[in-house]
Amino acid sequence: MDVDKPTRGAMHSYAKKSLDAAFKVNDASNASGLKVPLPETPKPPPKKSKMSDRAASDNQVSNSHLMEVLQRVENMQTGTLNRMQTLEATVKDNTSSLNSVTEALEFMSNQVEEVSSKVNALQNRVETLEKENCVLRDKSEELDAYKRRWNLRVAGIAEQRGEDVRKILLDLFGKVSPEIADQLVYTLDVAHRLGPRAEGAHSSRRIIVQFLSRNVRDQILRDARTAAILRERKIRVFEDLTQSTKDGRNKLWPLVERARKEGKRAGFRGPLQILMSQAICCFFRIILEKFLLF
């Protein structure tokens, strides 16, 4: 049986070769009277689907991406683990440091408490010593003031080289208090100038006198207030006072001066101020730096 030859232009190259070979065999079989079956047309290999290729490619990409992600996750976990281990070590170090700081603070707190107790004890001791010092200072000043009650000071006597101060005062006090002149030789103990002599000084140094009898000293002080010879020679005889008494009198002096301007008798007796009128003796007591003002 004749087979129509298909159009060759519409056939693939491998189909053309198979068809030519079949026609040749068929022509030969017709010539010999044998029928040879035509070979089956070879089927082309199945075409690969684009979707399957894309799926395979996506699958391959997904696997590689997944492996990469897993590797990254593993690396992150490793890094996190390392950081956690480092953080744990840091926390341990910090904990140890905090414990050390806590112990140091407790030690310092104990030291501060101990020092505070010592300071309080010392403060109490200082307060006690200050009170004792005030008492002792008052007693010392009182003893000093009491000892000075046997002394007198003299100002206004011209100073000469090689002078005998005691002899000068014996002569002067004998004229001030003639009724006790014979006792002065035995009761006037010591007399000398105060302080070193200054070169080129025009003023004379004051004289301090110490008596053995307080009665004689008080008699001379009373008579010196009205002695004409002292006013003529411009000589002053006054008490030997402590510095605190002098300071107190300086502060009280305005009151004395005002009382004298008012016609009252006013003056000092030891640490006391006396204000007196003709008929009435008025006493005003004021505490002023350990001195009494009357």
Verbal overview:
This protein has a four-stranded antiparallel sheet. Strands 5-6 form a two-stranded antiparallel ribbon. Strands 7-8 form a two-stranded antiparallel sheet. It is an alpha+beta fold and 294 residues long. Helices cover 59% and strands 12% of the residues. It has helices at residues 13-32, 50-147, 165-176, 181-187, 214-224, 228-233, 243-261; strands spanning 151-155, 188-193, 207-211, 236-239, 265-269, 272-276, 286-288, 291-293. Among the domains are: 1-39, no CATH class; 242-294, no CATH class. The chain contains seven helices and eight strands. Residues 29-63 are annotated as: Disordered. Residues 98-149 form a coiled coil. Keywords: Coiled coil.
Descriptors:
disordered C terminus, four-stranded antiparallel beta sheet, 12% strand, Transposase_22, 294 residues, two-stranded antiparallel sheet, alpha+beta, single chain
Gist of the model:
By secondary structure, the protein is α+β, with helices and mostly antiparallel strands.
Structural class: alpha+beta
What is the CA-based Rg, rounded?
68 Å
Shape category? rod-shaped
CA-CA gap between termini? 175 Å
Order of helices and strands: HHEHHEEHHEHEEEE
Low-confidence stretches: 1-6, 272-294
| Strand fraction | 5-15%
- Widest sheet, order of strands: 2-3-1-4
Percentage of residues assigned to helices: 55-70%
Helix-strand layout with pairing:
Blueprint: H1 13-32, H2 50-147, E1 151-155, H3 165-176, H4 181-187, E2 188-193, E3 207-211, H5 214-224, H6 228-233, E4 236-239, H7 243-261, E5 265-269, E6 272-276, E7 286-288, E8 291-293
Antiparallel strand pairs: 1-3, 1-4, 2-3, 5-6, 7-8
Helix pairs in contact: 3-4
